[in-house]
What does this fold into?
Amino acid sequence: MQVIGQWVEDVPEFAIALARDFWPGPLTLIFKRSTLAQDFITGGQDTVGIRVPDHVVALALLEAFHNVGGRGIAAPSANRFGHVSPTTAQAVSDELSEYLKPEDQILDGGACAVGVESTIIDCTGEVPRILRPGGITPEMIEASTGVTPVFADTSDAEEIRVSGSLEKHYAPAAKVLLDQTPVAGQGFIAPSRRVTPTGVKRLAAPKNTDEFARDLYSALRKADELGLDEVVVEQPQGDGLAIAIRDRLMRASKGR
It folds into this structure.
């Protein structure tokens, strides 16, 4: 928490509990920014998002930067605005190579463990507000803090701007259709228990919700690689990580 204190102000008790329980991990906490977090980091907002990733390569990079005097790395996601998030180094290369300089490097740490992006929690109020659902679920947040989190109203014009909060986001070139029966020529993402109809291209058949999250983005990218016009997705039901998956699919289905 000493490192956080350089970047932020007004850290509530529930945020301390979340940081202790889930960092390093897929959790981004939003605080009021300090003077160190300048506009080029926050996009002109008076808040800043802080995360400690749970990956040996990312942690080694942060440690190496710290050893030469760095106090944190400000970085966006490795994908173009509104597009499907990458979950492998190859996906980053496919998405960004034409925009990179010869001296730029892509660090390959293997496939993402969770698959969907981090949970983002607004810590500027009296209770945790979930700005983007992710791998740290509402149940986990309440168990950690003793406080029931609330979901932010993303239609509020004064809402904090965060990654993936637009109505249209995470979209492949193919049109995403939700909870329909696929027909020949379409792609299909659904739990493994579902049979693939004749002429339909199966893109993923996850056995559980965790596997669904890990496979989702690579399956949507595969649809574009195959030149499919439409992809039907049977959404996972229930709470926990399924909420995050449905959030991403709802945005992807709006198209770009």
In short: The chain is about 30% helix and 15% strand. The longest strand covers residues 27-33. The chain has a mean pLDDT of 91. The helical segments are 2-7, 13-22, 39-42, 56-67, 89-96, 138-145, 209-225, 241-253.
